[in-house]
């Protein structure tokens, strides 16, 4: 499942209309490719357990949208004299962020990386208490 949606791709609405507009399937494919690409970086970080579960970290969603935007722009044809330049810069920034995430120099905030199985609860064990018992609350456990 992609980490972002079409609404989270940082492209002008005009990009999705007209003769060169991507089809809904191309948008879905770009989002899935971007998410898979990101998984490759995250798999190298031992602190991240894949697959991630929703809700996804906000920065992760932003970077996925930036990568998907670049994939769509590159498929259409890159024009450095247009707003495509900003899309390319966002893509390069996303790559730098992924490299830092891979190296554990940034972390996913509020991200549940371990999906919980429904209906399972942890079993908690405890050792018997040790030391002085029935003390009266005084210093050294000797009472008042």
Uncertain runs are none
Strand content: under 5%
Report the mean per-residue pLDDT as an integer.
Answer: 84
**Helix count, per DSSP?**
3
Class by alpha and beta content: mainly alpha
Please report the distance between the alpha carbons of the first and last residues.
64 Å
Which series of helices and strands comes N to C? HHH
Biggest beta sheet attributes: none
The total strand number stands at 0
Helical proportion?
25-40%
Please tell me what the overall shape is.
Answer: elongated
Radius of gyration, rounded? Answer: 25 Å
How would you describe this protein?
By secondary structure, the protein is mainly α. Helix content is 40%, strand content 0%. It has a domain at 28-115. The chain has helices at residues 24-42, 58-76, 84-102. Helix 1 packs across helix 2 (58-76) and helix 2 (58-76) crosses helix 3. The protein is elongated, with a radius of gyration of 25 Å. It starts with 23 loop residues before the first helix and ends in a 42-residue tail after the last helix. The mean pLDDT is 84.
